[in-house]
């Protein structure tokens, strides 16, 4: 009938197969012959048949939906990750729902409880949960983390290595007392950057002053800038670009020159890092690639059922930390250290 939406039975009749066979052809084609599957697909295309989400869920046990959980959806650091996840999921016909936990650990766990039954899996970017809690959730549902490995498994951006590159850059410019404006206490990446910077500072003959913690937001930059000025440093490494932007704002308000009076380095190379004046020296990370790799790994986990006693990696995919390299982008906010008074 004109205007009537074709059903799975219509597809089955057109292909000359049973309804159950048509369903398998469209959801689990590996369980029937390729000739039959091709015939069913052709009939579905000719009729304009589009399976409903609820129908797919009932027939395959899957929703075709993945949750992408972020600590702060307004942070441009996550834009590239979202694009990467989205582009990879689209290839396999998946979509994602975006969850913003607003830097709240309880909100992050509440989100996982809510999506456990409504999504096929989850990608957590820079999660703030404790290691043991994350490991429990990884046993309970297909889950991949970015910038926070779980049981030796996940996608990790080498920002600690990038922070060391930034410190080496400042040391080469004659800086001997440098501050690190740290990020949230719950940040795995922040802890590992501090751990990498301390021995690097000793090797380079640089005195490292750790400031903070600070919220990874522009508004927190004023306090970080004031603390850096009070610490008598000539350079400051900021946890992320947003914090660095706020530091630059405050230094300008105080009438200080960058990089003449104080050199500033950010992290992430987000949109706008090259637009501020002077342009921000920062650590660039392959964010879109990280999102694609995380989605790729999650889809593989979804397609391989986990054992009942499964730990991360017991779904047939060996646990591994996929370490993505970072690099320093030198712009105008770093220069030679100011002369000693």
Automatic annotation (TrEMBL):
Keyword Coiled coil: no
SMART domains: HTH_LACI
Gene Ontology terms for molecular function: DNA-binding transcription factor activity; transcription cis-regulatory region binding
Keywords, sorted A to Z: DNA-binding, Transcription, Transcription regulation
Highest taxon above the source species: Bacteria
PROSITE patterns (UniProt xref): HTH_LACI_2
A Pfam family per the record: Peripla_BP_3
Chain ranges of the HTH lacI-type domain: 6-60
PANTHER family, sorted: LACI-RELATED TRANSCRIPTIONAL REPRESSOR (PTHR30146), TRANSCRIPTIONAL REGULATORY PROTEIN (PTHR30146:SF138)
The name this protein goes by in its record: LacI family transcriptional regulator
Species of origin: Cellulomonas algicola
